[in-house]
Amino acid sequence: MPRSVNNVASRARRKKVMQMAKGYFGRRKNVWTVAKNAVEKGLQYAYRDRRNKKRNFRALWITRINAGARINGLSYSQLMGKLHSEKIDLNRKVLADLAMNHPEAFKAVVDRVK
User: Fold this and answer.
1) What tens digit of pLDDT does each residue of 80-102 get?
2) Is the backbone of residue 80 left (phi > 0), alpha (psi -120 to 50) or beta?
3) What is the pTM of this model?
């Protein structure tokens, strides 16, 4: 019995990977074996960095809250501790936005916990 090869599916699979490699430099965009490795590595980085993005944003928010808190005479840890003890449930994202874009509102929150 002759060997059956599903060429349509194989071509579609390769075409999908080559499509993902569009925009890469040199052989990474048009040589199958190189492109396949480059795309796999890129997908690994994408998976990893979707998680790292959350860490980076949290660190940015903390930096902004700390800067706003120090302008108003508190440190970040003192502010967060007092917010927690006063049972004010504002997350870091909202606090950072207030500190950056609405300093008078942030000052009101700080005065409330002082």
Assistant:
1) 999 999 999 999 999 999 999 99
2) alpha
3) 0.81
